[in-house]
Design goal:
This protein is mainly beta. It has five helices and 24 strands. The strands form six sheets. Strands 1, 2, 5, 6, 8, 9 and 10 form a seven-stranded mixed β-sheet that branches. The chain has a six-stranded mixed β-sheet with strand order 14-15-22-18-17-19. Belongs to the PHYHIP family.
């Protein structure tokens, strides 16, 4: 498929398009702004007869691709050789003003039957709002382009990671999980006021809340799944939970079999790090048939509770035995309300290490261990 020649206002992309895009041959270009102003050396001429794309439709949206189509005068189709696509991240009013702005992505594609697929993780990120506009173009004998005016601007949002993408993360997490250590308790640290409120205002129950935006940007559970965060990691030398915590000096402890048993389904949720050498794995424990279980079945890879690399529940001599991975920090989300009477609340003797908190923690996009090639 023909690729537009360099030297006519077109700059080559930062990485080969052939490796990024299956259905199209696309290149990043510096063409003109949406008002139709051309640079002196752009090599682009105007031809008013070329049709402006109308009634643009975006569908089949994934975390790193979308299909685009539009209405066009059939009589003009034979004169159109290329489409110019102006793709931009929608401006976020809360973005860091000191951060470099995202560079607009202008793409040129050889005219193909519509709808056509735009795919590329180097310019599309999951869960991100974009604007898109289109021009039709006709390549001239001298290499210049005649172009239409820009179409209307359309907004859309890319999707979450699919189960296929999460399986890729799961496989990466399995490589670094390490050997398994025995444990017997799940625990949750919070401030004293949290437990007081649960007793007085919530019927002595800890209630699920919506997961924050920590971890992978494309995670399908962030901002959607409701649950209660627990930990289960133990110290290698003592076999007990660490006495320090980022989340508060009061700890609720509950026997592992109350949350994790043969009536519980286990799901892999995410793998991430925060510019550190150690990694976090998010797992979801959902009582079978619960709303949380139904949510996860449609979105997350399910794990065998007796045979996986992160968290296991097996039976030995008529008793349930539990193990957790040693080399990753597990964040376990339990999706149902939990009565405080099922465990104990006590003050810990260690420190509150707030710097280790993962609340809304941003994933390191440069880490080769915990990223996959479909955005961050």
């Amino acid at each position: 498929m023909e690729v537009p020649r360099l030297g006519h206002g077109i700059s080559s992309p930062t990485s080969p398009c052939e490796n990024m895009i299956k259905n199209l041959s696309l290149e990043a270009i510096q063409l003109c702004d949406r008002e139709g102003h051309k640079s002196q050396n752009s090599g682009i001429a105007e031809m008013e007869e070329l049709p402006v794309p109308q009634n643009i439709k975006i569908n089949n949206i994934t975390c790193d691709s979308f299909k685009i189509s539009w209405d066009m005068d059939p009589k003009s189709k034979e004169r159109i050789t290329h489409y110019f696509i102006d793709l931009n991240k929608k401006e976020n009013k809360n973005s860091n003003k000191f951060k470099h702005k995202d560079v607009p992505t202008k793409l040129v594609a050889k005219a193909v039957p519509l709808p056509m697929t735009v795919r590329g993780h180097w310019f599309l990120s999951p869960r991100t709002e974009y604007t898109v506009a289109v021009q039709t173009a006709s390549k001239q004998s001298d290499g210049d382009y005649a172009v239409s005016e820009w179409s209307e601007i359309i907004e859309f949002c890319t999707a979450d990671y699919s189960p296929v993408h999460l399986t890729q993360l799961l496989e990466k997490a399995e490589v670094i999980a390490g050997r398994m250590l025995k444990f017997s308790l799940f625990y949750r640290n919070q401030h004293k006021e949290y437990f007081d409120e649960a007793r007085v205002q919530q019927g002595n129950k800890m209630m699920p809340s919506v997961k924050d935006n920590s971890g992978s940007h494309g995670s399908p559970i962030s901002g959607k799944l409701e649950g209660i965060f627990f930990s289960c990691n133990t110290e290698f030398n003592t076999g007990k939970a660490p006495q320090d915590s980022p989340y508060g000096r009061y700890r609720f402890e509950v026997q592992a079999e109350i949350l994790f048993n043969q009536k519980t389904n286990l799901y892999f949720g995410d793998l991430y790090c925060m510019y550190t050498a150690y990694h976090y794995v998010i797992l979801v424990l959902a009582p079978s048939g619960s709303p949380g279980d139904e949510f996860c079945k449609q979105r997350l890879p399910q794990l065998n509770i007796a045979d996986n690399k992160f968290l296991t529940c097996t039976e030995e001599d008529g008793r349930l035995v539990f193990h957790h991975a040693q080399d990753v920090i597990l964040e376990v989300i339990y999706t149902d309300p939990l009565d405080l009477s099922l465990g104990t609340v006590a003050e810990i003797s260690g420190h509150q290490l707030r710097s280790l908190s993962t609340v809304n923690a941003k994933k390191d996009p440069s880490c080769k261990i915990c990223n996959i090639s479909v955005g961050r």
